[in-house]
Amino acid sequence: MQNARMNKPCRNIVADERLDQAMAWSCEVLGENRLVPEPVSGDASFRRYFRFEAAGRSLILMDAPPQQEDSARFLDIGDRIRRAGLRTPEIYQFDLQKGFGLMEDFGDTLYRELIHENTPQELFDGLFDILEGFAGRVDARGLPEYAAGTLQFEMDLFTDWYLKRHRQRELSEEEQAAWTRFTSLLIESAQGQPQVFVHRDFHSCNLLKTTGGVGIIDYQDGVLGPLNYDLASLIWDRYVSWPRARLLEWMETMHRRFGLDIPLQEWVRSCDWMGLQRNLNIVGIFTRLEYRDGKRGYLAMLPRFYQYLLDVMPLYPEFDEMTWLLERSECAP
């Protein structure tokens, strides 16, 4: 079966006009007559990735429709990270007008498969090295700022899509005022952090084990933002819920590694609050992906991230109003 497929012309194996165009472009760039693409992964964006063999090596084809994806930003941020001595895929060829790119293949060993309840600390030490590199070496000049309006918009996805659309739970006028007070505190905390390069989706599905070290992908939304954002992304994981003692241990580790001169308790609070902002956003995004974009499977992930909110919010009395609301049965997933 494989041999028969390899003898087919350079075209997609299913009816997909854009992929046919991408493969024709790839054949022209590489000087090949036939290539056989295999889907690698999809994500929550419009980007798609395919793998094929050419000239004795495995390559990744990125299909990023220019009407929906800003690939110039992808190229720029990838270059910034590589210049900092960190590992992102080498770009062999990219056509910004068409939205097609050929890049290095990092393989399939995601850190999602390596991170579990018994993961040795040495693995996390390597990931913490990357966080230090992001903060200390990646040039963030000229990148968009993680502005207050953006932080607010992201959290409002929770009330607009999760509460209102998914749970049919409208906020009363009093509850809306409480929501505004709550989110204002989170924004103030985020903006009070040192502002550094932020990946924005630094978690186990965007990190791969390669022969050259940790491979970093999906970085195109990077911004100038809070120091602890990527730490929050990493430790409030999509697939593993860590005990509070371990979260505190990691926050203390990064407090030391970053060389912060603020009290540890203040740093822990800021990390907790950054995690709340991010996890509210995730619950809202996952709900929107289901109802607006027709992407299935994301609603099944809601309980873990909702529980993260319920784990942290009761630790802070200033959030009592919103904690009471989120703990109500009509709001829970």
Question: Keywords for this structure?
Answer:
333 residues; alpha+beta; Phosphorylase Kinase, domain 1; Aminoglycoside 3'-phosphotransferase, Chain: A, domain 2; 2 domains; 5-stranded antiparallel sheet; two-stranded antiparallel sheet; 12 helices; 47% helix; 14% strand; globular; disordered N terminus
Protein model, in words:
The chain is α+β, with helices and mostly antiparallel strands and 333 residues long. The chain folds into two domains: 2-104, Phosphorylase Kinase, domain 1 (2-Layer Sandwich), CATH 3.30.200.20; 111-326, Aminoglycoside 3'-phosphotransferase, Chain: A, domain 2 (Alpha-Beta Complex). It has twelve helices and nine strands. It has helices at 2-6, 17-30, 71-83, 111-114, 121-136, 148-166, 173-191, 229-235, 244-257, 264-291, 302-312, 320-326, and strands at 38-42, 48-54, 57-63, 91-95, 100-104, 195-198, 207-210, 213-216, 223-226. Strands 1-2-3-5-4 form a five-stranded antiparallel β-sheet, covered by helices on one side. It has a two-stranded antiparallel ribbon with strand order 6-9. The longest helix has 28 residues, at 264-291. The radius of gyration is 21 Å and the shape is globular. The N and C termini lie far apart (45 Å).
Shape: globular
CATH architecture classification name of the largest domain = Alpha-Beta Complex
Compute the number of helices: 12
Output the strand order for the largest sheet: 1-2-3-5-4
Name the CATH superfamily assignment of the largest domain: Aminoglycoside phosphotransferase (APH), C-terminal lobe
Helix and strand run: HHEEEHEEHHHHEEEEHHHHH
Kindly identify the CATH topology of the largest domain. Aminoglycoside 3'-phosphotransferase, Chain: A, domain 2
What is the CA-atom radius of gyration, in angstroms? 21 Å
Q: What is the class of the largest domain in the CATH system?
A: Alpha Beta
Ranges where pLDDT stays below 50 over 5 or more residues in a row are 1-14
Percent of residues in β-strands: 5-15%
- Helix percent band: 40-55%
